[in-house]
Automatic annotation (TrEMBL), chain A:
One of its GO terms (biological process) is transmembrane transport. Keywords: Cell membrane, Membrane, Transmembrane, Transmembrane helix, Transport. Belongs to the binding-protein-dependent transport system permease family. CysTW subfamily. CDD domains: TM_PBP2. The chain crosses the membrane at residues 27-50, 88-110, 119-140, 170-192, 213-238, 271-293. This is Spermidine/putrescine transport system permease protein. PANTHER family: INNER MEMBRANE ABC TRANSPORTER PERMEASE PROTEIN YDCU-RELATED, INNER MEMBRANE ABC TRANSPORTER PERMEASE PROTEIN YDCU-RELATED-RELATED. It is found in: Cell membrane. Residues 84-290 form the ABC transmembrane type-1 domain. It is a multi-pass membrane protein. It comes from Acidocella aromatica. The keyword Transport applies.
TrEMBL record, chain B:
This is Spermidine/putrescine transport system permease protein. It comes from Acidocella aromatica. Residues 60-259 form the ABC transmembrane type-1 domain. It comes from the Bacteria. Gene3D superfamilies: MetI-like (1.10.3720.10). The lineage of its organism: Bacteria, Pseudomonadati, Pseudomonadota, Alphaproteobacteria, Acetobacterales. The keyword Cell inner membrane does not apply. The keyword Ribosomal protein does not apply.
């Protein structure tokens, strides 16, 4: 290659880089200034001490993390660990419920004529486009003390007469599953749509029972969608704020509300920031774990930028 | 493909599930027609009260300013971002720097909205204390809403561009269209459905959000969701709140259906694929 061709190529590459920065620069810089830097600041605050108003001050300290673990001037308290385990449990059950509901719904949609499918899918996603507060407090009306569902629960001796199913753990799990169901349905639908039905036919020719057909021919093929769905549901459900706040009451405090309290009602920024770090560590571990699992199982690569 | 018996079972499970999805929303509407105090039956009393509730209207106006203002800005930023990444990123770039744009774009999507909101709260608070600018209010809310919308718009536009025939760009080059010309006369028309889709998605995300709004709002910037949340926290659910909720649910469902049936003929597969990627 001649020297001039080489430099021409370099100039062209430089131009391309300039174009890249002019077009994508503003958006990227915006996100960096207004999200990456702020979240870095939030995480950094966890290593400061708190003044009387809960604002971060020097010196650096690990006290916020001791608080997270439950140590305070009054000794050790298991409250935070309970809240953490409860959040994990609520998010886990909500994820299971939404997965269990998604399978029949997805295959129901696939059993309908092709022209109808987008509309059927839309009607599942539609409730999640209404405002978070509205669609959450709506469950308060369905599960509250004077609602029909609570009468039934009362007749079955599941709840005391003057209390409804909401607020409480049951309402929180229901609310989380309702809020995040579309996040399970959409990826599951995407992988079920591409299902190779010849495998099912082959199984049927070999007289496999319905259960075995589903378990060995259908389920493995939908696994990539299911795993993405689990991530999309479990992560936001774990750190959700609105649902436990509106449907949980005092008994079903979750990590999200605990964090938020440190920045609103009883300010203690460093403690709140330390809680956030622990929550993000949990979230990150879940994400990485599932990524590895997906790759091991030969999961589909998502469309990435 | 699916045996008849299984199909019946699927229908038997699914139709009640569809009904269950809409039961809470329907209940909000039902309770909104509660009668006036000391009366029986159903009435539009709550809507009448709502009509004379100045605070609700102010909140509605703020919500609209927030949604439209943030969506316009994020559409501009996101369209350029998606376009730039699709067209000008060197395909053989390696290393951390090459992955940086993707990392930045996915952060707002992956980050739990509570962490998002609190980060913004602290950041705006510190900036305000240091410089006097950006006191918590509608402007900080708009900034935060732009931040979470940009990636979604960028991904929508990117998905559309990536699905195009790459020779289209070569053809434009061969016809001596320069960068600006090909952007104006080729890219914009071709990507237009994605830009409109991204804009509507931005509005939907903005209207849907509570958590991030809650933490970036100031005392003088109560939007509809914050208004409803505050009212419930203070005095529980009232028929007026149900009336307001009914109007919000009705509006968003109508808009979504209209959008669906308009785009259905033009670009059904593309629109749906784009949205599917995102949610």
């Amino acid at each position: 290659m001649s020297a001039t061709a080489q430099t021409e190529q370099e100039i062209e590459a430089g131009r391309q880089r300039l174009r890249l920065w002019v077009t994508s620069g503003p958006g990227l810089v915006w996100i960096m200034i207004f999200l990456l830097i702020p979240s870095a600041v939030l995480l950094g605050i966890a290593f400061f001490s708190a003044d009387d108003y809960g604002a971060p001050v020097l010196p650096f300290s690990v006290q916020p993390f001791q608080q997270v673990a439950g140590y305070s001037l009054l000794g050790w308290d298991p409250g935070n660990i309970t809240i953490f385990l409860r959040s994990l449990g609520q998010a886990g059950i909500a994820t299971l419920v939404s997965a269990a509901l998604s399978y029949p719904l997805v295959f129901f949609i696939l059993s309908r004529p092709e022209a109808l499918r987008p509309l059927l899918l839309l009607f599942i996603v539609l409730p999640s486009w209404t405002n978070q507060v509205v669609r959450t407090y709506a469950w308060l009306e369905l599960l509250g003390p004077n609602a029909p569902v609570s009468w039934v629960a009362h007749l079955l001796h599941a709840v005391p007469p003057d209390l409804g199913l909401a607020p409480g753990s049951f309402a929180v799990t229901t609310g989380l599953a309702y809020n995040y169901l579309p996040y399970m349905i959409v990826p599951l639908y995407a992988s079920a749509e591409k299902l190779d039905w010849t495998l099912v036919e082959a199984g049927r020719d070999l007289y496999a029972s319905g259960v075995r057909l589903f378990w060995h021919a259908v389920f493995p093929q939908t696994l990539p969608g299911l795993l993405s769905g689990i991530i999309f549901v479990a992560i936001p459900a774990f750190g959700d704020y609105v649902v436990p706040q509106l449907l949980g009451g005092d008994k079903a405090l979750m990590i999200g509300s605990l964090i938020a309290n440190q920045f609103t009602e009883t300010p203690d920024w460093p403690y709140g920031a330390a809680l956030t770090i622990i929550m993000l560590v949990f979230t990150g571990m879940g994400l990485v774990g599932f990524r590895i699992l997906t790759r091991k199982l030969g999961g589909a690569e998502e469309a990435t930028i | 493909m699916i045996p008849r018996g299984v199909r019946y079972a699927l229908s038997g499970i699914s139709w009640p599930l569809y009904a269950l999805l809409y039961t809470p929303l329907a209940l909000v509407a039902y309770y909104s027609f509660a009668p006036a105090p000391n009366e029986a039956g159903h009435s539009l009393h709550a809507y009448n009260v709502l009509l004379h509730d100045g605070a609700a209207f102010t909140a509605l106006r703020r919500s609209l300013i927030l949604a439209i203002g943030s969506a316009i800005t994020s559409t501009a930023l996101g369209t350029l971002l998606g376009y730039g990444l699709c067209r000008f990123r060197s395909p053989n770039a390696k290393g951390v720097l090459a992955h940086l744009p993707s990392l930045i774009i996915y952060t707002p999507i992956i980050m739990p909205s509570l962490v998002f909101g609190i980060s913004e709260l602290i950041f705006f608070n510190l900036v305000h204390n240091a410089t006097g600018f950006l006191s918590a209010g509608l402007e900080t809310m708009i900034i935060a809403h732009i931040t979470f919308q940009v990636p979604y718009v960028a991904l929508t536009v990117y998905a559309r561009l990536a699905g195009l025939d790459p020779y289209l760009f070569d053809a434009a080059n061969d016809l001596y269209a320069n960068g600006l010309k090909s952007f104006l006369y080729l890219i914009i028309p071709v990507v237009q459905p994605a830009i409109i889709g991204g804009f509507l998605l931005g509005i939907t995300l903005s209207i849907d959000d509570f958590t991030i709004s809650f933490f970036t709002a100031g005392p003088g910037s109560v939007t509809l969701p914050i208004y409803i949340y505050g009212a419930i926290a203070r005095k529980g659910i009232s028929p007026e709140i149900n009336a307001l909720g009914t109007l919000m649910i009705g509006t968003i469902i109508t808009l979504a259906l209209v959008h669906f049936f308009i785009t259905r003929h033009r670009d059904r597969a593309g629109q749906f694929a784009a949205r599917g990627n995102i949610t």
